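We include this case.
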Amino acid sequence: MTELYQSQRAMRNMRKAAMQRGVIAILDVGTSKIACLVLRFDGPGRMTDDGVGSLAGQSSFRIIGAATTRSRGVRFGEVDAMNETERAIRTAVQAAQKMANTRVDHVIACFSGAQPRSYGLDGAIDLHDTVVTEQDVARVLAACDLPDYGEAREVLHAQPVNFALDHRSGLGDPRGQIGNRLACDLHLLTIDMDVVQNLAYCIKRCDMELAGIASSAYVSGVSCLVEDEQELGAACIDMGGGSTGISIFIKKHMIYADSVRMGGDHVSQDISKGLQVPLGVAERIKTFYGGVVATGMDDREMIEIGGDTGDWEHDRRTVSRSELIGIMKPRVEEILEEVRERLDGAGFEHLPSQQIVLTGGASQIPGLDGLAPKILGNQVRIGRPLRVQGLPQAATGSAFASCVGLCLFAAHPQDEWWDFETPIERYPARSLRRAMKWFRDNW
């Protein structure tokens, strides 16, 4: 079997090549939908340098094709049935290419599953010269001691989140500054390797080259948190169909990510079981009549369930809206309580600002803005992604947060460990049984 997976650095180079050619596809592989956007980069400024700085600003790109299709073969944000997922991806990509009237070979993908785990690492070096160079940044990143994160896991993001030069901390980019000792804090996000390889293989089978991957919790935060929130500290909760992604940002960098294996589809399944209706009917009832906060009116508002079983009595049943809310509310509360636990475990309460932004398709349940503050804390808002050029009106809602974030990520990727040519003699300590393959292949 051919090598399924290119290294991150090879992907970064491929992304640059694709941007020079001017078009690249964005693919969000979710549990309930697969969305594909085709971006066109115009103008002379399209190949700007990637600084160590944060992802910010609107690039000179335009969306020229967009398509979504119902997801198949994906559970908890992970590929479950390869053939079905491949067909769904092909459908979305072909429709987006047709709208864009161009062929796209390179794709940047995001996904929500794979059991992400966050690590905070640090390293420090003495400078040979007093001025910090690119090589010094590479050396200090290589000086960070790697945790033993397990055999079957791989690194997805390795981003420097803070530099300190002598006694001055909080530097975004130390290059060119004068000092004697350089220290760095690094955020490392590892994921289940098999999940990513399955996704990469699936995309390869669709005759596309993978030019980058990202965690959808990360890219949702990029598109939904406003600049002040990213700076002062905020959490983005991306409530998808099969899983709920959590990311925490401060100083415009992601410092923590996690996911809860529950989402909007689980609410639909509860309705399906509670009312004894097919999943499609449950989804429709949830979308049109659902909610999580009951009022006195809801006892009197009757919902016709409908159905086509042929049993007249069964198909003509009605249910009050308060009964429906009684089925939905416990599951939504369970998801939010699980999220609260993860935030507490990450030390979210120690950040200067405790803003929480809910996004993703399942965040559109009516009444969530009233229920969420009771569980998560006072500063909660429902977030929508930034407006980007050419985005169809139908794709401006919360369900497309990760798609829009992935566009911004493609245009302005934050520098990661593999963007710096790490010196060969600074291999990680041999005691770390298994140094990161992605890095080792490229050092």
